[in-house]
């Protein structure tokens, strides 16, 4: 009889109609009350226990955290501003999780009241546990990963963002001194204070030039070599490909340190054995003149980066049907026309996401900048080296001058720039669209 009533969408005769709004309001007042109103007693009691346990277990910590993130301490030497900031961020994360649970509790109470009014029969406790296991199993399995993600990715990100709006530096280091909220002060300094303004403009321009030129060179060299080796007239393709990807086999930091020694102004092989015998003098100032250092850095990055691009393009080129080229030859197409209309579009369509990643990777390519010359040489009137990019400048601000808040502000700018560039390019890339022709 109950089954027939459920199928017909009518309530049993002895069951009163529930008010979904009442269930929702009760759940807002206390998690679980709405479920009890819906006669889901076990679920309601479980929600009530969870809420009370959360309040009792975290109340003191949440109070301290919210007070700490608001004030960052009031007594120098006693209150540790950074610890209070950490407690505050953790408190906000816990409150966010609690808010998600509370919203679920309210929505669940209202929906179940509507379902019961529509004739849904409340399952037994055994059936409820089985349904809970079936529905919650994926979430139970992913919960540890979610918690790990929150505290290894989300928490550090929020902490760095928060530091960008403080005055945390060598002279405002707890516990001796308190850190204070200064709003957009760090960003205003980057735009108005001469030394910060000049340094940021110089480093920013070089970072953009470095990213575009170095990455484009390695892509162009990789493409040219891949096209040449893929030519059907070339023999010993396997041997040639093996030789061309050898730079990829050597760890990058080893190659960078070797190049740093080779280009040393005083004893490097480039000056001693090549430049001086050819032009005389003391050789070229590879490590002491920013212009020459930048040229060398671009050349080294091209050497380090082209093998990956070459291997990537080689695989894609072999997937292009030879019939396309034969048809083009019949139509009288030249080699350049075949390359421009067949080879290049196909390669870019298949590899665009990875090529975009090459640009974003070089934008933050700390290793080559720092290992080659530590971002040097020094530049008068700036607090960054002549070849520092944004990420290496952030490193120096953090570990050499202890200007943590300014480093966090610049890191936030870097993150925004990379995110905007990546999102813009991905949205324009055909590889990420469901449909599209080459």
From TrEMBL:
Q: Where is the ABC transmembrane type-1 domain?
A: 204-425
Location in the cell: Cell membrane
Tell me which InterPro entries the record gives.
Answer: MetI-like, MetI-like_sf
Gene3D superfamilies per record: MetI-like
Family from the record: Belongs to the binding-protein-dependent transport system permease family. MalFG subfamily.
Topology of this chain in the membrane: Multi-pass membrane protein
The record's Gene Ontology cellular component field reads:
maltose transport complex
* Broad class of the protein's primary localization: membrane
Keyword entries, A-Z: Cell membrane, Membrane, Sugar transport, Transmembrane, Transmembrane helix, Transport
Record's keyword annotation contains Cell membrane: yes
GO BP terms, alphabetized: maltodextrin transmembrane transport
Q: What does this protein do?
A: Part of the ABC transporter complex MalEFGK involved in maltose/maltodextrin import. Probably responsible for the translocation of the substrate across the membrane.
Q: What residue intervals traverse the membrane?
A: 20-38, 45-69, 81-104, 136-165, 203-230, 242-263, 291-313, 342-361, 404-424
- The name of this protein is Maltose/maltodextrin transport system permease protein
Q: Which GO terms describe its molecular function?
A: ABC-type maltose transporter activity
